[in-house]
Automatic annotation (TrEMBL):
Catalyzes the ferrous insertion into protoporphyrin IX. Keywords: Chloroplast, Heme biosynthesis, Iron, Lyase, Membrane, Plastid, Porphyrin biosynthesis, Transmembrane, Transmembrane helix. The chain crosses the membrane at residues 443-463. InterPro entries: Ferrochelatase (IPR001015), Ferrochelatase_AS (IPR019772), Ferrochelatase_C (IPR033644), Ferrochelatase_N (IPR033659). This is Ferrochelatase. It is found in: Plastid, Chloroplast. Coiled coil: none annotated. It is an enzyme of class 4 (lyase). Belongs to the ferrochelatase family.
Length: 475
């Protein structure tokens, strides 16, 4: 396993040994700092000379796509040290700590499916239109959501009529609160969903009512993607910029956490346990199935999702190998939507290929999400299982999602505690982007764009050939 460690000494970045303490020259400013450390026991803590408590703690995986980050500002001196929870508690006793868990959200009833899909496709981080065509976003979302709704409804009906996501996320929040209390940190936990209730805005209103004085934001996606954590964080950053409450409020945003030892070990535990349920466990191929993203996200927009996914899988396999598990493994991407190319190999094609090659036993491991959801319960458990059995795979198994696994929840609680000292005020620079936000568009401009977009969408609906092309290739 590659492990790169870095230390700051004056202006230089050199190699670091665990436990190194380095005092940096006073008044040195640190603006951004990539900290590509895979061993999460090593942290970089920035101290101010007159305070004994850490002011900032940097915990940033290496990534290509740069979105707003706030944790790093200026520091008087710099110490590289191991994380000390007692020190954190001493500075947080007087605070009203809030933890905001971000997630995707899902329809609770079949009637919610179409409006939920509308919210999803109206997100410019999900359908990325060129600037010139941005005005089509909402009419297109309306069209696609109406066309896709019947298929999605069928899938949600087959798993009981709605998504289990809110229930599981609430259970995780409750379990996290208890784990934090055991670690002597009292915090209020909020759930903010991107596409369904309770929306992020609802969670933010509650945070304000509760007079939270320090906030940690934790997206429940281990790996960062523009389409998931990125989208949720940009909604938040817009709120933080516009709302005076957040001016000066210390906030720490955790962007990804797939490389945490606690998470990796929890995943390895689940895989190891499930392998034992096969009669021929050493012959089973471990089949990691990650939610896909369009290829352009990675190749054009610099989404670090694929790199992080591959990294994550090599860390899990490394952990399994250290336990003597020698099974082969493969990574494929599921749940593609639309006519564009997505990350490959595709899960369905890979299953067929493996069946043709004579593989007899597969263990599916959902890897991009930590709760059961439609794509584990319907796509993997029903569609892919059926496809596998038709393709000659004889033994099929699936690793459950982490949900409330206690080692995992405890590790997330540690992550929150470690992130607290990094909380710092978000820079409130207003975007000078004129035309991307409805709020910034005048009413007339908005009405014209909606009307024009709706006319185009309406014409698309009138052409049966186009619609059937949409239906066949998109949905
Ligand atoms: C890390 C996980 C996810 C990524 C990456 C992601 C990207 C992504 N998704 C869509 C389109 C849809 N996603 C849908 C549901 C859905 N997606 C995720 C996770 C990721 N999505 C979850 C957990 C869920 C399920 C929520 C639930 O209700 O249980 C759906 C709706 C379901 C369906 O109709 O299939 C769509 C559509 C795109 C286009 C995309 C990247 C651009
Ligand atoms: Fe999705």
């Amino acid at each position: 396993m590659e492990s790169m460690q870095t230390k700051v000494l004056s202006n230089k970045v050199t190699n670091l040994c665990q436990g190194d303490k380095i005092t940096k020259i006073p008044n040195h400013r640190i603006k951004t700092f990539a900290f590509p450390v895979k061993d999460s026991s090593i942290k970089l803590v920035l101290h101010q000379n007159d305070l004994s408590a850490p002011q900032n703690l940097i915990y940033r995986p290496q990534r290509k796509h740069d979105i707003a980050t706030s944790a790093l500002s200026s520091a008087e001196s710099c110490v590289i040290d191991k994380f000390d929870p007692d020190e954190v508690h001493s500075i947080t006793k007087q605070e009203r700590i809030g933890i905001l868990l971000l997630n995707l959200g899902g329809p609770e009833t079949l009637n919610d499916v179409q409006p939920f899909l509308y919210n999803l496709f109206a997100d410019p981080d999900i359908i990325r239109l060129p600037r010139l065509f941005k005005f089509l976003q909402k009419p297109l979302a309306q069209l696609i959501s109406v066309l896709r709704a019947p298929k999605s409804k069928e899938a949600y009906a087959s798993i009981g009529g709605g998504s289990p996501l809110l229930r599981i996320t609430n259970e995780q929040a409750e379990a996290m609160k208890e784990a934090l209390e055991e670690k002597k940190l009292h915090a209020k936990i909020y759930v903010g969903m991107r596409y369904w209730h309770p929306f992020t805005e609802e969670a933010i209103n509650q945070i304000k009512k509760d007079h939270i004085s320090k906030l940690v934001v934790l997206p429940l996606y281990p790996q960062f993607s523009i389409s998931t954590s990125g989208s949720s964080i940009s909604v938040l950053n817009n709120i933080f910029r516009e709302d005076g409450y957040f001016e000066g409020l210390p906030i720490s945003i955790i962007e990804s956490w797939y490389q945490r030892v606690g998470y990796i070990k929890s995943m390895a535990d689940l895989i190891q346990k499930e392998l034992l349920s096969f009669l021929n466990s050493e012959e089973v191929m471990i089949f990691f199935s990650a939610h896909g993203v369009p290829l352009s996200y990675v190749e054009e927009a610099g989404d670090p999702y694929k790199d992080q996914m591959e990294d994550c899988i090599s860390l899990i396999m490394c952990e399994l190998r250290s336990r003597g598990v020698k099974n082969s493994h493969v990574l494929a991407y599921q749940s593609r939507v639309g006519p564009v190319q997505w990350l490959k190999p595709y899960t369905d094609e890979k299953i067929v290929e493996l069946g043709q090659k004579g593989v007899k036993s597969l263990l599916a491991v959902p890897i991009s999400f930590v709760s059961e959801h439609i794509e584990t319960l319907e796509e993997i458990d029903m569609e892919y299982k059926e496809l596998a059995l038709e393709s000659g795979i004889e033994n099929w198994g699936r690793v459950p999602a982490l949900n409330c696994t206690s080692s995992f929840i405890s590790d997330l609680a540690n992550l929150i505690i470690e992130a607290l000292p990094t909380a710092s005020a978000i820079a409130r620079t207003r975007s000078n982007n004129n035309c991307t936000d409805d709020g910034e568009m005048d009413a007339m401009q908005y009405a014209v764009k909606m009307l024009f977009g709706s006319v185009i969408a309406f014409f698309l609906l009138l052409f049966p050939k186009l619609v059937s092309l949409f239906k066949n290739s998109l949905f």
